[in-house]
Backbone:
């Protein structure tokens, strides 16, 4: 039997991750290496201790910054 590892669900995940009901964003999910292969590539899960990088091209936009940009 293949052992399972714990991964963290990201915001890109839908209701199911690798055929398993998603526990929610930021919550742990246990999957085998085979089950986790595609979701890792798709960014639906990440290995514990891995920090997701902000999108390329600059700074992270907060709701307050977006509102300010709209007013200008």
Residues:
């Amino acid at each position: 039997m293949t052992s399972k590892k714990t991964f963290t669900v990201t915001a890109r995940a839908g209701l199911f991750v690798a055929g398993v009901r998603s526990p929610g964003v930021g919550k742990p999910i246990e999957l085998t290496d085979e089950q986790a292969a595609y979701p890792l590539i798709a960014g639906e899960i990440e290995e514990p201790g891995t920090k997701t990088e902000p999108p390329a091209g600059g700074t992270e936009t907060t709701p307050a910054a977006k509102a300010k940009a709209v007013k200008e």
Q: What stands out?
A: Residues 33-42 form the longest helix (10 residues). The first strand starts at residue 5 and ends at 9.
